[in-house]
Amino acid sequence: MKQPSSAPRSSGRRVMGGRGAQAAAADPTRDIAFDIVSGVIEHRRMLETSMENSPAAREAEPRDRAAAHRLGASVLRHMGTATEVLSPFLKKEPPEPVRAVLLIGVAQLLFLGTPVHAAVATSVALARRRGLAPFAGLVNAVLRRIAQQGDACLEGLDQERLDVPPWLWTSWGRMARPVAAALGMEPPLDLSMRPGCLPPPGGEVLPNGTVRFPAGTRVTELPGFSEGEFWVQDAAATLPARLLDVKAGERVADLCAAPGGKTAQLAFAGGEVTAVERDARRMERLAANLARLGLTDRVKTVRGDATQWRPDVPLDAVLLDAPCSATGTVRRHPDAMWIKRPRDLAGLAAGQQALIAAARDMLRPGGRLVYAVCSLQPEEGPACARAAEEMGLIADPFTPEELSFLPQARTAEGWLRTHPGLWAAQGGMDGFFAARFRKA
Ligand SMILES: C[S@@+](CC[C@H](N)C(=O)[O-])C[C@H]1O[C@@H](n2cnc3c(N)ncnc32)[C@H](O)[C@@H]1O
């Protein structure tokens, strides 16, 4: 069995004067988790969006929201295995909402270590609260039988294979198994340090300088957070800006910039940075992060579409961290595996190539572009790098020296390819593709 995440508290507070014993038990954790799971599997909405849309989440305490997030994410991490476990107990496919209730029950029983009584009773109550009373008996019977068998239900199952949708497994090739193995673990908290600041105590310093804390660490409670001594950034996410190798005084654009981790790197390297971001709310987050890091006066921010924006003067360097399928972040966002479909990739790649063309037009002759995506999909990585060359950009491969601390991430072409199975013993990293080019 994979490493379990921490179990949700068994809520179940009674509401005085309720309509009936089970229907009246308030259980915001499972209510929100139900909205999350249904939002992802029925409506193909992102986990975070499903949570924002959840009426129960709006009124819930932060700790109930956090527990629901953990429970919902656990269902999505183990969805293939849980579906396989359920199948012998179901004569026919249940309606989607019933399936969501059952998956929440199985995740608690087999992956979160929730006591059997709590897992079964809360799932039956959840079914009733969600207008699924005719299925309450089914939920009760199926979960009781699974609880009786316990871990024996998992024997002989290739959980890693089951928990990745087949089309993604195929497209990931040799990365598939290590990525799937990493899915069972909550990712650690990674920090990038402001130059000159000492890491908070207790962190492990990785070979690239990232300071790593165990999963579940609350960043706002670490000393130095309010003072802007660090920002949250996965170890792999630090690499594209580092590989742009910005020198003091260079004119640089960070396209698709929010929430601003890479903007901060470029500014601390001494670049005259313009950060371009299209989304108003994400721009607010970028501005707040820059303010906390004391960078407000050192970065110019532009809210707009990077395919349309052009600098007044041609640039020395551009970092393009393009919007993508985000399959490289499946450890943090397991919903990405269940939302995207193969047919979405062509549209994403077209958008990425439009952004590459715009970036090319922003550069002075000899100027540098690093193109990056947090995706494991070949259509968004190598295929876009080849398209960049067809647009007249000249490949500028990363050298072995530049990636000496992570040689296994350097491809034969001199591109960067990270995935969650790298540095596995230290907690892994996100999946990124990056390539560097020069303008003729
Ligand atoms: C992968 S995230 C960027 C993460 C960011 N570079 C960082 O390191 O913190 C992609 C961002 O691109 C923005 N975006 C998408 N299309 C854009 C466009 N055409 N112009 C500007 N920003 C865009 C999205 O709103 C999103 O904030």
Automatic annotation (TrEMBL):
Pfam families named among the record's database cross-references: Methyltr_RsmB-F, NusB
Name of the protein this chain belongs to: rRNA cytosine-C5-methylase
Active site per database record: 374
Start and end residues of each stretch annotated as Disordered: 1-26
GO terms assigned for molecular function: RNA binding; RNA methyltransferase activity
Keywords: Methyltransferase, RNA-binding, S-adenosyl-L-methionine, Transferase
SAM-dependent MTase RsmB/NOP-type domain location: 156-440
Family: Belongs to the class I-like SAM-binding methyltransferase superfamily. RsmB/NOP family.
PROSITE patterns, sorted: SAM_MT_RSMB_NOP
Biological process annotations from GO: regulation of DNA-templated transcription; RNA methylation
Binding annotation for S-adenosyl-L-methionine: 256-262, 277, 305, 321
